[in-house]
Design brief:
The protein has a single domain (about 5-40, about 45-125), classed as Fic/DOC protein, Fido domain (Four Helix Bundle (Hemerythrin (Met), subunit A), Up-down Bundle). The longest helix has 15 residues, at about 5-20. The protein has helices spanning about 5-20, 25-35, 50-65, 70-85, 95-105, 110-120; strands at about 40, 45, 90, 120-125. It is mainly α.
Length: about 120
């Protein structure tokens, strides 16, 4: 749903607006992060709901660290984009989002914790 060109453009725009070092550190890690939410086996999706897909995507982008800078911001953007595509959004303050993404980056939250956090804040738009 989010292709590499879209995420690269969004990443670059965020850096232009908010600062940081431009550059892709590892294209393979970026592609892996973008593909993870849509993985499956046969007819079975590993991440069936938009919340599950979004949790997998934000975790992979933040932890894989594919960009030189802006991985947390890009992860939040991508998570939000997937939720919106599914007709949902998060009800969270900027401070809550900041704490959330920092906890992912530091390893304090794993996939299950991320999914629970999203489920507690998701609303249908």
């Amino acid at each position: 749903m989010i292709d590499i060109e879209d995420i690269m453009n969004a990443h670059d725009e965020m850096l232009r607006l908010h600062g940081g070092s431009f550059g892709l550190r590892d294209k393979g890690l970026l592609l892996s992060a973008l593909e993870r939410p849509f993985g499956g086996f046969g007819e079975t999706e590993f991440y069936a709901s938009w919340e599950e897909k979004s949790a997998a995507l934000v975790e992979s982008l933040v932890k894989n660290h594919p960009f030189m800078d802006g991985n947390k911001r890009t992860g939040l953007f991508a998570m939000h984009s997937l939720l919106c595509f599914g007709g949902k959004e998060l009800s969270a303050t900027d401070d809550e989002l900041y704490d959330f993404v920092v906890k992912i980056a530091s390893g304090e939250m794993d996939y299950r914790d991320i999914l629970q956090w999203i489920k507690e804040r998701v609303v249908i738009i």
